[in-house]
Amino acid sequence: MRTFKGPFGIAVTVALVGTALFHFWLGSVGVLDLRLARALHLTLLLPMVFILFPATKTLSPKEWPSVLDFILAATAFIVTSYVALHYEELNNRLELVSDIQNIEVIFGVFATVLVWEAARRVIGIGMAIVVAASVVYLLVGHFLPSPLGHRGFFLSRAIERMYVLENQGIFGSLTGISVTYLFLFVMFGTFVERCGVGEWFAEISQALVGHKVGGPAKIAVINSAMFGSISGSPTANVYGTGVYTIPLMKNMGYKPAFAGAVEAAASTGGQIMPPVMGASVFIMMALLGMTYIELITAALPAAILFFLAVGMVVHLEARRLGIDPVEKSKLPSRSKALMRSYYLLPILSMLLVLSLGYTPVKAALAGTIAAFIVSFARKDTRMTPRRLCDVLAAGTRSAILIAIACAAAGLVVSALTATGLSLAFSSMIVSSANGMLFLSLAMVALTSILLGMGMPTTPAYILSVTVAAPALIDLGVIPLAAHMFVFYFAIISGVTPPVAITSYAAAGVAKASPAATSIEAFKLSIAGFIIPFAFVYHPALLLQGDAYDFILPFTFALIGISAVAASMAGYWMASASPLVRTAMFIAGVLIILPDWRFWLVGFGLLIPCLVNQVFLSKKLVTA
Fold this sequence. Notes:
The chain is mostly helical. It has 29 helices and no strands. Helix 1 (6-28) crosses helix 18, helix 9 (197-209) runs antiparallel to helix 10 (215-231) and helix 14 packs across helix 26.
């Protein structure tokens, strides 16, 4: 991303701050027509993409936009402001019935190309390929044979779906979510990060677990879980918290690849950890028609299982390597860290406003105001006018990615909806798996991983849920479990080789082999591949049902996840042989599955493994 100095830099900062203030006004007291609000949202953000983000990393100028960038920014302003200026006329037309004007076809073509280019610059080539393939399929897919072919669309009607419709395409419902929930949530996360909460998370993590076995790695797990939930980006979390936790782990004896993997796995898991769960939770909330409190409450048990597994692996790895805890004298004082618990005020304020029945928009505003107040606790975080402008500008820069992701995903969803490809894909999955739920789950998991590779969480989830979730719902999976299933696998793609982007970021910080780090992160995150299958078969793990339905599956899941973690570490009470590790892994998976016959076989495998470990541990003591 470019940074500017001088008058032009001031002008860009003023534009970014003005954009932030507009969204704060809209979220607090402003009332605008839906189409107008979405159009103004993109009018303010889409041109900034071409100003701030170079077309290429090597050839484009880094300190100043090129002439082409200025032309693209001006064109983006024109095609988006057209919708803002003519929103009443567009609202009064009969969608898919009234003729579309020639100027709208031309502007629609430009808008589609500009959103595609913006997605390429901001999100990456993966998203650009998906968007291009979807648009091309909409235009020429009628030449393909069944079941992929569709009835075909004239250019004018295709552009109408992508540019003119209120609830589809560039200005559709996904952009509407970006205008309301996502922009203010990203701004909340930026304020929380800049007011000192992130540093306090690191301090309290050190104070609570630094003196335990595997303390440095546990610090990384807890710190990244808390900070990653708010930051909304696993990669950003790696760079934000890993610069401290990874060197600490290396200094205490962990191998560089393992240290980077711990940070990558924990940062990835932050996206599934309540109370915030990144930006994607707001999209899921809107798609499922659930309240924010209902959704984060349902997600909590599975998140606990994930981080329990990661924490157990790092604990057992420390036991296996004989790594000593950090000396208490080198750690922050627990009492002093707890006295600064007022840094939780922004998060607690947000949750309180939600629990009182207010919208997530009001909750994000309340949390942001609380973060602003908390910033005055320290001189170096105090929100002076200059620092406040910097924070508002930084939050708007971060929101650009979300806005472009939603607009680009709107093009994809529009194409899939118009052509019926999502339904055809669901039918292909169900028929290929012969209606077997487990095989369908495996195919959907693979699809979600492939769609999520190299992408940020939000667009990865949108694409995965559009393409893959209907197949599961058709097989009788409850919508919440279906959405959570693809959500998990879209996120876990960040640590899945060969395109493990979060692992590669952690490898860079750890100065370790990217391949070795991605493999270790994959092993640490193995619970993230098992837990989604568990809550599809056990909806009680998503708190769907009464307490009695929840207790037994959750208890067995705890046992199973613990066995899997021991298998990944290769250590329980003593080093485990390959045979014992394999048996523990199979036992753990079987115990998690929802059938008493699987439980019997699982415990039948696990008990001999436990006996073996007890015997070996006693043998080591007496040796």
